[in-house]
From TrEMBL:
Positions of the Chorismate-utilising enzyme C-terminal domain: 449-715
Cellular component per GO, a single term: cytoplasm
Organism this protein belongs to: Lentinula raphanica
Enzyme category, top tier: transferase
Name under which the protein is recorded: aminodeoxychorismate synthase
Highest classification ranks of the organism: Eukaryota, Fungi, Dikarya, Basidiomycota, Agaricomycotina
Biological pathway: Cofactor biosynthesis; tetrahydrofolate biosynthesis; 4-aminobenzoate from chorismate: step 1/2
Family matches, as PROSITE patterns: GATASE_TYPE_1
Length: 733
């Protein structure tokens, strides 16, 4: 066996932690290359001839049950390898359960399922636990395997006390080179039980292979074609940077007291017939606010999933450009490649570029999960709605500097004119008020129906199909009022100021946001790195509640930390999938204060390997990571399928993202929550505005249905403030 260049085959059962496991193997087994296949990609007959080119197989975790053939695919057959095909195998969670039950062990459901929980693992220091002290490790499982069989030797346990008693945590086959662990070695909170165990497995695998004089055949090109490139594989399109053709011109005005609302009004936000976009850092930790000055000729890009063309609007002129063989993501990337610009001010995150929204279903579609058949009848909103911004103002709320920027050649006259308008304007605090004639009807989700969905979600958690499900529901508002949407936004901003606030009037949709959650931001090359800031854990700001008590309630809660941990692990996987090895959790479960709630926020960062940089990398991360994990649950694909069956309507803009892609190469996209949106045809036809507000929360096995209903209402309440709507009743808010 060639130990210098080991080759691993990692079988993925559609889990959201697979790339974390690949990264751990890469660290544990120096110089190894890893090929990842799905468990239904090859039959055992197709796989067998390839095995001689691999040093070992890793069988990953996954949703479902090891005794359901569709859930494990080829894994079931792998244990039946004949002696001459034998190869060392290491199974994780679902992979381990399969190992045990295929060798005579019993599969049982845990009485109390363990998702995202840290447990002490006991072992007697033998075999793959050699040289290890007691370890703590993260568990994501609903089933466990009982090794009442001659063939499996138990190696580790945990003690769940009255909940589940002693639960098998690791074992090996007595005669064949098969090992496995029930816990997750790749989780960010697993200690030495992660890296060390894989190193020990590898040492045992090498020893076994040497004893058998097993040699490794080269991977021929035919096999390579079947398997695809090894991980980490950076897409060739990520390895070159476009040449910059365009230049940004900037002028800076120092204005004490400048506020984003006044600036928007100077830039004609009150002309409701025209599009307008504002990305507003209305609260800490937000810093820059971006206000576009759109032209009648500004390009608007609209796309509905399923369309073969993209709709391009410039004022009243509309045309359709065929996507030909491209998808919408590559089409946009190509547009931005030609728009690449230089020379903008280095302190300013946005110099011009695309601003707008991407729907939740756009991400669902990327995951290959079927959408509702009739979606276009019930959801008229575009799945992509972006405008190309050539002129904009960026307000640095920390320094009160306003950066006036243009991508148009020699646009100095507009810049000078705008600077003059700002200098002569007397800034005041623009107040919004509700028109007393406003009448609002609020159609809340039905409580008993929502609670029964929470219970159904929990059944999926019990059956091992998901570890966490972010269940949501839409609230519909019928508003008869003469309050323009801009005034409505000001009300929202006042009642629920948030770091990722936004006013996006992008016909046919108007979207108002008071989101606290950044999804992904990426800095401009050459130092491009990506940052994700998932939120899980929400606590109402009750009078007298201090940061310390919020911390105690959130960080001290096993349930809340588990919810957050699952999403952190999922996002690490999403990032490892695009960027390769360099992914790090920079902040775990910190408490942040917002206007009406405390939130628990983690920060995960990643970058391309040294020497590589590309202005498309952030876009690629976005494409591969939608919908946001915090809005789906884990494992993402199965969770999204379940949510599609539980939720009655498209989420549409809610749970998607909004933000920008700057011509300088950076970008920033926030999660579209605590937001509302409406379609312009509603108002035109009936004089009634129909607004939609989505809200929800992560359901885990530990969730109390009533508390989850209350949490959903709490999130909703922040947005209802913009409508002066009768507050929904809940026990706790
Ligand atoms: C589902 C929503 O929020 C999501 C769920 C959270 C939670 O479960 O604590 C927190 C932030 C969001 O990721 C929402 O605001 O509607
Ligand atoms: N993480 C996993 O692989 C979980 C395995 C299985 N779905 C269970 O719940 O037990």
């Amino acid at each position: 066996m060639t130990i210098q260049h080991p080759r691993l085959l990692l079988i993925d059962s559609y889990d959201s932690f697979t790339f974390n496991l690949a990264a751990l193997c890469h660290t544990a087994i120096p110089d190894c290359s890893i090929h990842i296949i799905k468990n239904d990609q090859l039959t055992i007959a197709e796989l067998l001839p390839l095995l001689k080119s691999f040093s070992a197989i890793i069988i990953g975790p996954g949703p479902g049950s090891p005794d359901i053939p569709d859930d494990v695919g080829v894994v079931k057959d792998i244990w039946r390898l004949s002696d001459c095909d034998l190869i060392p195998i290491f199974g994780v969670c679902l992979g381990f359960q399969s190992l045990v039950i295929e060798h005579g062990g019993q599969l049982r459901r845990l009485r109390v399922v363990k998702h995202g929980q840290v447990s002490e693992i006991f072992h007697d220091g033998r075999d793959i636990f050699q040289n290890l002290d007691q370890i703590t490790a993260v568990r994501y499982h609903s089933y466990h395997a009982e090794p009442y069989t001659q063939q499996i030797e138990p190696l580790a346990w945990t003690d769940d006390g009255v909940e589940n008693g002693s639960v098998l945590m690791a074992g090996r086959h007595r005669t064949r080179p098969f090992w496995g662990v029930q816990y997750h070695p790749e989780s960010v909170l697993t200690d030495d039980g992660g890296l060390h165990i894989l190193r020990n497995f590898w040492a045992s695998a090498v020893e076994w292979s040497q004893k058998r004089a097993r040699s490794l055949s080269p991977l021929d090109s035919h096999s390579f074609n079947i398997l695809g490139p090894s991980w980490p594989h950076l897409k060739p399109s990520l390895l070159s940077t476009s040449h910059c053709m365009n230049s940004v011109i900037t002028s800076i005005v120092q204005l004490s007291g400048a506020n984003v609302l006044d600036i928007s009004e100077i830039l004609n936000v009150n002309d409701h017939k025209s599009p307008f976009v504002l990305l507003d850092s209305a609260a800490s930790p937000g810093r820059f606010s971006i206000i576009a000055s759109l032209l009648p000729s500004s390009l608007q890009i609209l796309y509905y999933i399923g369309d073969v063309s993209v709709t391009l609007k410039r004022g009243s002129s509309v045309c359709h450009e065929s996507l030909a063989r491209e998808d919408i993501w590559s089409w946009i990337a190509r547009l931005m490649r030609s728009a690449r610009a230089i020379n903008g001010h280095p302190d300013v995150p946005f110099w011009g570029g695309l601003i707008g929204t991407l729907s939740y279903e756009l991400g669902v579609h990327t995951l290959d999960v079927p959408l509702r058949n009739n979606r276009r009848d019930t959801n008229p909103h575009p799945d992509v709605n972006l405008v190309y911004v050539q002129r904009c103002l960026v307000l640095d709320t920390f320094t009160s500097k306003v950066y006036i920027q243009s991508l148009l050649p020699d646009d100095w006259a507009w810049i000078a004119d705008t600077a003059d308008q700002l200098r002569t304007h007397s800034f005041r605090s623009t107040e919004a008020s509700l028109n007393s004639k406003t009448s609002v009807q609020v159609e809340l989700p039905d409580r008993s129906c929502y609670i029964s969905k929470i219970k159904r979600a929990q059944e999926y958690l019990q059956s091992g199909d998901s570890y966490e499900l972010c269940l949501t529901a839409n609230t519909h508002l019928s508003v008869r009022s003469s309050v323009p949407t801009w005034e409505r936004y000001k009300l929202l901003r006042r009642s629920n100021p948030a770091p990722y606030s936004a006013y996006l009037r992008l016909h046919p949709t108007t979207f108002l946001s008071s989101s606290p959650e950044r999804f992904v931001s990426y800095s401009r090359p050459p130092d491009s790195f990506c940052q994700l800031r998932p939120i899980k854990g929400t606590m109402r700001k009750a009078p007298g509640m201090t940061r310390a008590s919020a911390e105690q309630a959130l960080r001290g809660s096993q349930k809340e930390v588990a919810e957050n941990l699952m999403i952190v692990d999922l996002i690490r996987h999403d990032l490892h999938g695009v960027l390769g090895l360099d992914v790090e959790v920079k902040q775990f479960c910190a408490i942040e204060e917002y206007e009406t709630v405390w939130q628990m926020v983690s920060v995960i960062e990643g970058r391309l390997p040294a020497g590589h940089c590309h202005d498309k990398v952030g876009w690629e991360v976005l494409r591969q990571s939608l919908p946001p994990g915090s809005m789906t649950g884990a494992p993402k694909k199965r969770s999204v399928e379940i949510l599609q069956s539980l939720e009655e309507e498209d989420r549409s803009l809610y749970s998607g993202v909004f933000g920008y892609w700057c011509v300088g190469g950076g970008g920033d996209w926030s999660v579209a929550i605590r937001s509302c949106f409406k379609h312009e045809s509603d108002t035109q036809e009936s004089g009634l505005e129909n607004w939609v507000i989505g809200a929800g929360g992560a359901i885990t096995a530990l969730s109390d249905p009533q508390a989850e209903w209350d949490e959903m209402l709490l999130k909703l309440k922040g947005v209802l403030g913009a409508f002066g709507a009768v507050k929904p009743r809940c026990h706790d808010c």
